[in-house]
Batch of 3 targets.
Target 1
Amino acid sequence: MAATTTTAVGNPLAPEWLTVPNDANDLPRAVWSDTAERRPSGDLAIGGVSVGRLIEQFGTPLYVVDEKHVRARAHDARRLFDREFTRIGSRAKVYYAGKAFLSTEVARWVTEAGLNVDVCTQGELAVALAAGVEPSRIGFHGNNKSRAEIDRAVGVGVGVIVIDSLVEIERVAEAATAHGLVQPVRLRVNSGVHASTHEYLATAREDQKFGITLADTPETVARIRGHSSLSFLGLHSHIGSQIFGTDGFAEAAARLLTAHAGLLAGGDVPELNLGGGFGVNYTRVDDAAPLETYARALADVVAAECTRLGIPVPVVAVEPGRSIVGPAGTTLYTVGTIKDVSVSLADDTTAVRRYVSVDGGMSDNARPALYGSDYMVRIANRVSDAPAALVRVAGKHCESGDLVVLADYLPADVREDDILAVPVTGAYCWSLSSNYNHVGRPPVVAVVDGSARVIVHGETEADLLARDAGTTPPASPKNGTE
């Protein structure tokens, strides 16, 4: 293929936000994990481990997690929210939102940094417990917790259960009574704040499955307080995910504090949980605020509203997940088929889009198919001085929407067997992964100080077949021989 057909300077198929980079080998610092770097050889290295070594040892696709990055962001979250809420005469509780990515190793990293852990299924609870997380440091979410999940959560002594519906009040109260315990609970309410994010990620709107309305809050809290086996800690709100600005959080906090103040007449309300959803940069044009900005803004609005309402400042809980683990992750792929496609334009001209297909896809990163999410991509095994070409990185699955990177620029000489690296895949990639087309989930490897180790095993063909009840196990060898 001639490079002249794919050189993408001025390619009209590029989205408006995407500009041709001066160097298609660069690693924009705002997107890549803390320890990612180009070595003089051209190889990408993360955590002091070269991509070549990782591929030789683990193959592709491969999730790579920068351990230092996760630990540093967890420590920052603890430090920043502690500092800002101490400043206004209160304190903070910081929960790591396990739904972003949870393994026993990650649970240990974040708890060692001083964070609690938020889970929303029995499986996530099991992982946290297996990691040795103290149950009192676990919060349990979910809009449809089964009786078995509630019973287990209460039985092991989780620190708080978030009540999501009226029926859960009775279910949690019954479980607590059966175990002879008093279970601390929060109540999830919909603030009505319409966060600026994807429709599927906005979780505080009125017409959706989570929580109850603010108008129903007083009566619902009265029902909670009517059970001697429940201890009401306060309200909980989550306005959405991947939110860049602080205005939505400030408005939600103001609305919740008004409700919070009204509840004080009926008893103590020691806490207020404002959720998470702090955005991260996925491309060079994104401009997510640093975590410090969110911490300061929330503390300021809580202090101002409590002064206005004439109430004590409660303990404030937050639940960052993506902002801690998202940028720490990079996914590696091997290039297979490359195809140039001529696309007709409205002015009767044509433009060329280069499809670069890799050995993974929507089974290891569903976000582009689910949300139209944008990512960046770089060749990871070498550098090139070829001109930049517009590419679309496609997966190997039987869906036209199976795209990993919707649009970015790579050197025009990208070729079969190149290794591609897609950054910011630490959150909601492994968590949303599947076995579509009977593809095994890739392993997750942690890198730190020049060493690499598997923290989640990948799935083999044998693993997939082992779950198929129609397979016949191979006969056992006789006398210890084949």
Note: The chain has two domains: 3-66+327-466, 91-320.
Target 2
Amino acid sequence: MRINPMAFSKIILVCLLTTLGSVPMSAAESTLFDFTLTGLDGKPLPLSQFKGHAVLLVNTASECGYTGQFDGLEKLWEHNKDRGLVIIGVPSNDFGGQEPGKAAEIATFCRKNYGVTFPLADKSVVVGTDAIPLYKWAEGQAGFLGKPTWNFHKYLFDKKGKFVAWYSSATEPTDTKITNAVSTVLSE
């Protein structure tokens, strides 16, 4: 049987990327709860306060085509917060300059237009060499294909702060992929 060298090379590349993408790039004992963000109010937001809760981490933007997902995030939060889900929005201007506002403007926009009550972090860099430590770590957990490529990329962590899954920007917060995964981690 003769194998096409180009096709074989592509198969090897996919296998290599898949393998590299599944290997955590940070210490196995690190968890989400080892990190501290700055809240939108400028105060420290230690994620250790959420130990025992599942967390959905979402990079957000006020002027994005996906901004309407704030509605779905708020619904997911309201439906599951008493069961142990925390949603944390991390405003970012990394993609298309779609979060140009300052903290007060972001807070007002999110609360006034979408009724957001879940915690919001301060505007942060979430990709590249200047990404905040939490996002560098999360990318290492999710693998190469799991890094944010646009606004409203989502990372789900279990109650122990371990990475569970990532969801692309196009995946709505109320999509069954997310709601089923949230239900599963909340029941563990």
Note: Helices lie at 5-21, 69-80, 103-114, 133-142, 176-187.
Target 3
Amino acid sequence: MKRTIILAVLAISAFSTVQAANINGLVNTGVGASGTADTHYTLSSASTANTVPVITYNNQWPISPWIGNDGTSKWITPTADQAQSFDAWSAGTYTYSLSFDLSGYKADTAGFSARVAADNSVAVLLNNQLVSSAAGFTGWSSFTANGGFIDGVNKLDFVVTNWAQNGGNPTGLRVEFTDSTVTPVPEPETYAMMLGGLALVGAIARRRKTK
């Protein structure tokens, strides 16, 4: 009898101990070789519709004053010429988008922490809902998201505004994800184990009542 009770408890607890996982698809900017396209992100703007941004080179302007690239992330820019000057007479808007899929996971358990830098300012949107806004390219701005996720494909938009300046006016984005978590949806066999455990507990309770 004692062994049966233990087995029942273990079956039920299997349902409640599904381990959280990292969110697949949250990729830092600039993961790849400098000078190549960052295919994890898409870019749209008035002048560059539905393209992919380019990963910057280290030690080329505007890296410094922009915070320096490293092995964790790099800046991405609209064109292969990272020093190209944009938006001479009016501010420009550049939307860098990243998609990730939560199929097979419980969207209401998802969350992540990240940090961002941009030339000049950036609004971060998760599924079209504002998560954070920041400005500056000499340091990081941290932000988190703990809600607003949906089942299936989610989208993060980093909407960069490049302030107007007639000359010497590049633009770019830098993103690093520092932590993420989401709970998988239990497999069917886990539900079966839970139901079997509940049935065992019920049978034991009924047996005790009849004694």
Note: The chain has two domains: 1-18+186-211, 21-185.
